[in-house]
Amino acid sequence: MSAKSSSLTVISSRPESVWQYAHPLAMVRNLWAHRDLLQQFTVREVMGRYKGSYLGFLWSLLTPLFMLMVYTFVFSVVFKATWGASPSESRVEFALTLFCSLIAFNVFSECLARAPGLIVSSPNYVKKVVFPLEILPLSVLGSALVHSLTSLVILFLGLLVFVRAIPWTAIYLPLVYLPLVGLCLGLSWFLASLGVFIRDIGYLVGVVLQVLFFMTPIIYPISAVPAVLQLALRLNPLSSVVEDFRRVIMWGQAPDWPWWGAVTLFSGLVTMAGYVWFMKLKRAFADVV
Amino acid sequence: MSSDVLVPHVALTNRDKCGLTAVDRDIVIAVRNVGKMYYLYDRPRDRLKQAFLWGRKQLYREFWALRDVSFEVGCGESVGIIGRNGAGKSTLLQILAGTLTPTTGEVRVNGRVAALLELGSGFDPEFTGRENVYLNGAIWGFSREEIDERFDEIAAFADIGQFIDQPVKLYSSGMFVRLAFAVQAFVPKEVLVVDEALAVGDEAFQRKCMAVLERFRDNGGTVLLVSHDTQTIVRQCERCLLLSYGELLADDDSKSVTDLYQGLMFSDPQESAEILANLRQHGLQYALKQSQGETEAQSQIQENAHDENDQAEHRIEPLDWFDPNLPKTSEVTYGNGDAEIIDCGLYNQQGERVNVLTMGQRYEWVYKVRFYRDAKDVHFGMMLRTIDGLDVTGIATDRENIFFESISAPLLMEARFSIKLNVVPGTYFFNAGVTGTVDGERIYLHRRVDVGMVRVLPCDSHEPYGIAYLEPRVICKRLS
User: Fold this and answer.
1) Contacting residues of A for B167, CB less than 8 Å apart
2) What is the phi/psi pair of residue B61, to 5°?
3) The whole model's pTM is what?
4) Total domain count for chain A?
5) Can you name the CATH fold of B298-480?
6) Nearest C-alpha of chain A: how many angstroms from B117?
7) Which of A50, A115, A140, A196 could form a cystine bridge with A191, CB 3.0-4.6 A?
């Protein structure tokens, strides 16, 4: 990984072929080559948020804990909503299930909200040093995953306290994360590169995320939607992801395999497309930033 | 070092150092027809409109920051790049460093380029120095273990003590740069691109940086140095590129190119256009002579004389001359109006008026003072200052024990200050002033600041730097 002593670098004005990036193995190899850098940037991303505060990383635990407490209060005392998954569902369970859905959605919204400004806000990495900019969205994703894991810990503690059991299906979690990761990564690459050229993207993404929050079955079960609209809602890949999160953690069910397979395949394509798009536009970043 | 590159067989011995292979083993950087064009839009929204027009209408103006630049840099060479602001220097460096894609042409770099474009640009102010060393190291492609190995050395080089574990935002700018340079110094590289980054830090640290730079060069490293300071370029580089409005105007030995650059800098638009025309038609040496106001004949004599008596201590002829194209200086005048300073001028020993001088020669600064009212306790003075405004020497008649108790107007007087010009080559300014005592207070009757601008040239065998030329005689001999 250290410097090669005889390497010929050709910096040419000729446009590059897009297809050299459009290979999953090439992508993985490129990202793997920068794993040290990626690790450092992820740590920076995670630690940097609370850097300088007295409680530091503890905030990553406290924030979701407070959120969970508020949800529990609101939905067990104020509103009387149910998921209808089990007849004996308690108010506390409703709050925990909502929290579970939010864990999935927050990874998505954290990545996408950050993506459009990601390159623009680090001009030094664009202009001053040769830097693999493609790892920046990855480090944001890494940080979002770390935060979602701490939230998961809180959720599991809540389950142990109120329900006194964690379903065994929770071991499916890594599989359930897979399409989520793919979607976040692909869209982040896409938005991060586009955001360099069109600054409006940042505001647009904020609005779209708001809409998406309600168009995804997060605060309601998908079964609460009229049958006609269910399919439409299902076409939103996030719906399946959120549903699967609830199935494996809250309801002790395996993921909905056909949908899981379809969404995972789709997110794989999104990842590749986002990566190729990013690498293609990357050369022009320094002109605009 | 330049000869290493020019003479092939020497270059061959250098091959191992440079670790190059195959055909172009002694060429480290090859720049071919490189251009960089930016689209300029009058309004930001035109950019969006253009995207939807699909080229049916042109809303932008093309701006070429670089145009058709070609050159090669050999292994172990040190090349300076000089030019005004906006000449395209930084664009060129960014392209060489690989952060900017050229619009036309291509660059081949044989080896690893480390760019000191802006030290510490990868630093995160919230993190400690230690964390930033690892972060920066990772950007340069080091693994954690590799930095672990080098960390103590880096910390020792930066020499910032306990601050290494403090957030970088608490650093003084000097400490910041020291740490950044320390990290940089340990990055293995074949080509070092320096963009005036060394003009920071305290003296001791600057020397340390120069030592690193020199060691790097001695080991066969190739250096590209961008600077406005012609002295630095001449000292550090054998060869220099002159960029102007994105064009590569000259590529020759540092002395000639920096002279040409100064000629261009200190001449009015019409004159510089002439110099450029000469450059394009007849080449660098001709343009250089023209810009220095020498005639063909004079330079012919000079060259002959030079050939005949190569060991001569001083250049034969001409030592100095008057260049009407030296720009009019931005003179500042003030005074109470009781007297007026006129006819300021510098004269050589033959009594000719001059403004291009040779160091170590004797010159006379002469001005006349016309008194309009009676004055008491009058003093005449002059001052020689550098282009930075540093006082080189001040002379006043009272300090030379010349006193004028009272002067009755009208009267015309002349003051002559003869000085031996023991200053290093560069641009200098002369002041003239006359004071008198009014109501018990010593005030300026008239003062003209920066009234005379001169250019001091080196004499052949000496090229000191600093400010003073102390007419050195140097002897080095073996004692055992």
Assistant:
1) 52
2) -110, 145
3) 0.69
4) 1
5) Coagulation Factor XIII; Chain A, domain 1 (2.70.50)
6) 6
7) A115
